[in-house]
UniProtKB/TrEMBL annotation:
<dbReference type="Pfam" id="PF03816">
    <property type="entry name" value="LytR_cpsA_psr"/>
</dbReference>
<protein>
    <recommendedName>
        <fullName>Cell envelope-related transcriptional attenuator domain-containing protein</fullName>
    </recommendedName>
</protein>
<dbReference type="InterPro" id="IPR004474">
    <property type="entry name" value="LytR_CpsA_psr"/>
</dbReference>
<dbReference type="InterPro" id="IPR050922">
    <property type="entry name" value="LytR/CpsA/Psr_CW_biosynth"/>
</dbReference>
<feature type="domain" description="Cell envelope-related transcriptional attenuator">
    <location>
        <begin position="106"/>
        <end position="257"/>
    </location>
</feature>
<comment type="similarity">
    <text>Belongs to the LytR/CpsA/Psr (LCP) family.</text>
</comment>
Length: 362
């Protein structure tokens, strides 16, 4: 199936595509909306528990639809960082955003790794309460680094690189403000809930608490329910169960978006693109998205590796343990490696073996 440039120009709200005669649907529209697909994956990956107040304006200018179309059609992209070592690492940082509490704490931290030569994808989740050292010799939780660095991801990227032993090529931040609208735009999600959720103290919008519960099994969630499901952490398993819940939503979003028809669902996809734009920051430019398409189109998403680094006391092989220390004069719950407070060898080993299932230790 093909389209002429004149017909496509109408789809792009009058963007001029003069000189481009024809191109296949799969190589045009699918490339254009891979950006939306990647955002869909990222959205599920980085929805965080609101730990509170105004959202910063994106430092990067929103990616323009016309520019995306130009890059995808003309294939003018340069190679991605990381391709020379056959591993592209993208750091996803998720925060709650306004009007939730602690809006700039990155309560979800996921390292996405892509291996171009074998078309593999791995996701490694780090807990928000992981204890790290600061440049001045102090200590803090890893989720505060973004805020400490004046809402700049550079410090978090540096620390995650130190912990995992992996260079970070790109970053992607997402706030939860658009979750409800995005899910509702998609018509809701079918999510496989792995275990019962019973949170008697879920934070309500008026500053109080309310009960939130979901039975295990397949459940259909609208946007408001997905927000609650991704934020809850007071039920059995706490933060560690919440990370597994996030992975279930990642899978639901992936199936939903990949199941859409890029022509018939054009209005929904364009609406999704528009809704996501105010809630994201990234240093991946238009040409980078083109290269991600070239690589990602061959990935088998049924073989994606999900690795969660946690300190769940129910898990005998968990790499981390919990302890209480004093941070800024206040007792704080933190997670540290079992082998020593700042001994990240086990995490680095898991990151190095993310593409080798038998080599994953956690």
């Amino acid at each position: 199936m093909s389209f002429t440039a004149s017909r496509l120009s109408k789809c792009f709200y009058g963007a001029s595509l003069a000189g481009i005669h024809k191109f296949r649907y799969d190589m045009g529209m699918r490339k254009l909306f891979l950006f939306i697909i990647l955002l869909g994956l990222a959205a599920g990956a980085v929805f965080a528990y609101p730990a509170t107040t105004a959202r910063t304006e994106p430092k990067e200018k929103p990616l323009s639809l016309a520019k995306l179309a130009f890059h995808f059609i003309t294939d003018t992209s340069a190679p991605l960082k990381g391709q020379e070592r056959d591993r592209i690492n993208i750091l996803f940082l998720g925060m709650s955003g306004v009007p939730h509490p602690a809006p700039f704490l990155t309560d979800t931290i996921i390292l996405m790794s892509i291996k171009p030569s074998t078309h593999q994808l791995g996701l490694l989740s780090l807990p928000r309460d992981l204890l790290v050292k600061t440049a001045n010799g102090g200590q803090t939780k890893i989720n505060s680094l973004y805020l400490m660095n004046k809402k700049d991801p550079a410090l978090a990227m540096e620390k995650v690189s130190e912990i995992t032993g992996q260079p970070i090529d790109y970053y992607f931040t997402f706030d939860i403000g658009g979750v409800e609208t995005i899910v509702d735009t998609l018509g809701g999600l079918n999510v496989l809930v792995p275990e019962d959720v019973n949170d008697p103290a879920f934070p309500s919008d008026n500053g109080g608490t309310e009960k939130f519960s979901v039975e295990k099994g397949w459940r259909y969630f609208d946007g408001a329910t997905v927000q609650k499901y991704l934020r809850t952490r007071h039920s059995q398993g706490g933060d560690f169960a919440r990370m597994r819940q996030q992975q279930a939503v990642v899978e639901a979003l992936r199936k939903k978006i990949f199941g859409m028809h890029m022509l018939y669902d054009f209005p929904t996809l364009f609406s999704l693109y528009r809704e996501l734009t105010p809630h994201i920051q990234s240093d991946i430019d238009e040409s980078g998205i083109q290269q991600l398409y070239t690589i990602a189109k061959n990935i088998s998403y049924d073989t994606v590796q999900h690795v969660t680094i946690d300190g769940d006391p129910r898990d005998a092989v968990a790499l981390l343990k919990s302890k209480t220390i004093t941070l800024s004069g206040i007792p704080a719950f933190v997670l540290v490696p079992k082998t020593g407070d700042f001994d990240y060898y086990g995490i680095a080993d898991a990151a190095a073996n993310i593409f080798n299932e038998s080599g994953i230790t956690n």
